[in-house]
Amino acid sequence: MKQSELFLPTLREVPSDADIKSHQLLLRAGFIRQNASGIYSFLPLGKKVLQKVEAAVREEMNRAGSQEMMMPALQLADLWEESGRWQSYGPELMRLKDRHERSFALGATHEEVITSIIRDEIKSYKKLPLNLYQIQTKFRDEKRPRFGLLRGREFIMKDAYSFHHTQESLDETYETMKKAYSAIFERFKLNFRSVLADSGAIGGKDNHEFMVLSDIGEDWIAYSSESDFAANIEMAPVIDQYEMPEGEQLPIQAVDTRSARKIEEVAAELGCREDQIIKSLLFIADEKPVLVLVRGDHEVNEIKLKNVLDAEVLELASEDETAKWMGTAPGTIGPVNISGEISVIADTAVKYTKNAVCGANQESTHYINFNIDRDASAGKYADIRFIKEGDPSPDGSGTILFAKGIEVGHVFKLGKVYSEPMKAEFLDENGKNQTMIMGCYGIGVSRTLAAIAEENNDDKGLIWPLEVTPFDVHVIAVNSKNAEQAEAGEALYSQLKEAGFDCLYDDRPERAGVKFADADLIGIPVRITAGKKAGEGIVELKIRKTGESYELPVDDVLDAVKKELIKLAGN
Q1: DSSP string of 244-272?
Q2: What is the mean pLDDT of the chain?
Q3: 20-237+402-453 sits in which CATH class?
Q4: What's the CA angle centered on 401, arms 398 and 405, to 5 degrees?
Q5: Does pTM surpass 0.90?
Q6: How far apart are CA 531 and CA 512, in angstroms?
Q7: What's one Pfam family the UniProt record gives for this protein (predicted)?
Q8: Which CATH number does 253-382 carry?
């Protein structure tokens, strides 16, 4: 492609509303343009990169045995009513009516559509398992679209769905898909982790997110310093490696703590450590009060708590609800002498406290020398806290570190969350009706493009990995008005194209500084420059990633380019 003919509107200034590097550089390099908040057009180079991301995803999905199809973006509300998500999904679901007043949704995801198709077409266990995928535009009315392609209202996604007659079959496909996802993100040279995660609005159990480690990520990952263990911090389990402090239990005693209500205030008032305090929080779980106890240096993990309680709805009690059940305001509540209507659940660490501090259910009063086995009763002990940096890794290898991550993929074991209410059934080997078991597997294709850009850049511009680069080689004639340089540039461009390389040729009548700045901004892996020595048959080859450059004869360019691209493919 000749650059003089290419639609490539580069920008010199950083757009004021672009907060992160990938957003800034994709705009500046002319890969995307914003049409509205969270809605973008992919310009020619952006589309080329997007197609290469899609191609890699498609290859690995096909290799994993999934079959590509295409479903409608416009979905009947009736299907969402069947699954129960029409109301529960929330305001992110874009809803509309047609001229006949029928309700539709713009597809945020396609569980309902694919389930309706399979239930109508598959009737026997002999046709299962089945794994289908599509690459398509999705729509979500994000409250705060931001970070360019990382959180938009319209985006490209690969979503796959598998259907099974046994749990063992789902488990096998789930592992196959996890391996396929790892292969995809390895092809893009991304620094990623597969992490244990919460299923959120999709539903189901047993799921993993694929997270690219990045300082601009919106999720925190807990990972081991020594092993491959990684989990979203909301899901990371804490192993029971506590020890009971030495010494005898002392008599419990009520003490005045004045206006101290927060953990740090109580610790300062009583001259104790935060891990010697029991933090008490009242929750309402499915309209029933539950007193939750954790150590003062720990935080309640509401996702773990909700799972342990098997609650549909879990909320922190309001001040009025706390006063009703505990007789005092939050900050001084505790587990001693409480109503039998209140369930008590304590984090495992609380069992290993001795002579601790806790609220006394009286204003400005706490107990010291509280021992839970003597002075109160925990109806249940469980892991209900957030993991902390420095905690032992749950797999027994190393300690926990934290990092931020960008979610680029997510795999779920849905089970019967959709197939049961939508009656997706089949006849088993005994001729009996059974409900299909489902899996769901998503990759944010446009988000992955942004994650690649976020990880591969410098202060001059983008640095595309070979797998997704818009062109393999960038040829530049420094002075297109100079006959020798123009002829050398044209000849190299023709030779490289004939040899099978995807080549961009900068033949524009621009100053050398503009051409080199644009080349760095666009980020093509290998650059060939025909400059002052073009008349002598000498050109310069430069590697965008390393900045390494050297001169070579024109006749050696093809071999040199092949060699450099092979090296880049291996790095």
Answers
A1: PPSSPPPPPEEEE-TT--SHHHHHHHHT-
A2: 95
A3: alpha beta
A4: 130
A5: no
A6: 10
A7: HGTP_anticodon
A8: 3.90.960.10
